[in-house]
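User: Quick sanity check before I run a bigger batch. Here is a single chain. Can you write out its predicted 3D structure?
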Amino acid sequence: MTTTFSTRFAHAARAAVAAAVLGASVGLAGVANAAPVIEVITPTGVYGNPEAAAEYWQRQHLSDDCVLMTVADVVGQITGDLPSEREILEVAAETPSSSHSGPVYLPDDNRWGTDYADAEVLLAEYGITATMTSTAIERQSGVETGTDALIDHLAEGERVIVGLNGPTVWGTPGDGSKPAHAVVVTGVDTVHDIVHLNDPYPADGRDLEVPLATFEKAWRTGPFIMIVTDEVA
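Assistant: Done. Predicted structure follows.
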């Protein structure tokens, strides 16, 4: 799933130049016959809009409500109306889970956290359609995952939540084998190989910048769990 950006975007750049030359030679009437440019390179190399998304970051105050807080973040980005932590907790407590009996989340039950599949359920409560996928279920979900797919979704303006390993991202001691934390990916910088996150756990989690290699190592534990919205913003 690791992408060599220099190779990937060099090919895209050559394709863009070739298409431009072809379009100039055949004129407007022949553009429909020109080879399509599959990838568009942004001027800055950043896919997504981390600066705008940073406005909707909130820090979690419970140890296990990261999925809920990432859902609130995405709702804010798409609708402009950011649910508070209290509100998203109340909605989760009143919404039936798609994967177990009872509501999506209760802070005092015997379960830890929220199932990733229930991120879809909570987003639907706000009128937002989303699909969960991973390398284990991408055939069933119909949505591919991995770095290239992530970039494509961000380029389209869709919003993406991923499940990954927190200690790996934060560089702290802990079990590095489990995808027990959720973050919103707000951008990928393909020039500097940096991933931008709205991470609800750390105090500095607003537009947290993580090296691509570190992000992929943490994300691979899922493997590559991703919840992507149909709606764009």
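The first helix runs from residue 5 to 26.

User: Great, the batch can go ahead then.
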